[in-house]
Amino acid sequence: MRRATIFVTASPHKNVTHFPAKRDGRKENGSNTQAALESAALHWFSEHGFEKASVGAICAQAQVTAGALYHHYGDKKGLFAAVVEQLDAQLVRAAAQANATVMASGASPWDGFLASIATVLQAGANSQLRRLMLVDAPAVLGPQQWGDIRKRQGLGAMQLSISALQAHGIFERHDASRLACIILGALYGAMESLPSDEALMAEGLQDASRCIHAMLHGLRHERVDGVDS
């Protein structure tokens, strides 16, 4: 199903030939309706915020009835939850792609991890994404629902990355879930600190990146002459 997107990542399967499966008209229509609703909702939520984005305006842009929205998502909040989860999933995929690209060049797992961190931070330069992920999502969904989405997406992916780095002896054997919360929290904080003035964005990204790198290097499990420090 095609999803709404703020930024686009390349498909790793673009050169693979796929043979079409037997089509299910009802499922296909439902998927198309959801894609249209999420695309329209992304526009309205990012441009106007959750409160000012009306169900009528979203449905008019998606060219579907309000009944279709309520059928698939329950209410406007349910649609919003689907949109921000897709955004978080896109960040995870973009970070994973950056990691894989660096690792494919023969670099270390640490370099791959830093590349994934840089990708997420760079995405934070998008003011609409910052608004949706850092301001509206916690306020609209509340800590429980937003926390569940983060566990399924960004937080879960961060925990897996940390566990992999621990297996390589790069990070100390702290609790991986706690360390993931700390690192992702710092990364979100760095994104939140980015300036709204586009003219200052490059400098802001550079400074935020230095801060994040300093913190991450402080968490490394250092070795001196082959002996654990």
In words, what does this structure look like?
- This protein starts with 24 loop residues before the first helix and ends with a strand.
- The longest helix is centred in the middle third of the chain and has 29 residues, at 76-104.
- Strand 1 (223-224) and strand 2 form a beta hairpin.
- It is elongated and about 60 Å long.
- The chain is built from nine helices and two strands, in the order αααααααααββ.
- Strands 1-2 form a two-stranded antiparallel sheet.
- It folds into two domains: 31-74, Homeodomain-like (Arc Repressor Mutant, subunit A), CATH 1.10.10; 80-218, Tetracycline Repressor, domain 2, CATH 1.10.357.
- Helices cover 71% and strands 2% of the residues.
- The chain is mostly helical and 229 residues long.
- Mean pLDDT is 85; it is low at 1-28 and 223-229.
Question: Which keywords apply here?
Answer:
single chain; 229 residues; mainly alpha; Arc Repressor Mutant, subunit A; Tetracycline Repressor, domain 2; 71% helix; TetR/AcrR family transcriptional regulator; DNA-binding
Oligomeric state of shown chains:
single chain
Can you give the helix content as a percent range? over 70%
- What form results from the Cα inertia axes? elongated
Architecture (CATH level 2) name of the largest domain:
Orthogonal Bundle
Radius of gyration: 20 Å
Please identify the structural class as seen in this structure: mainly alpha
Spatial sequence of strands, sheet with the most strands: 1-2
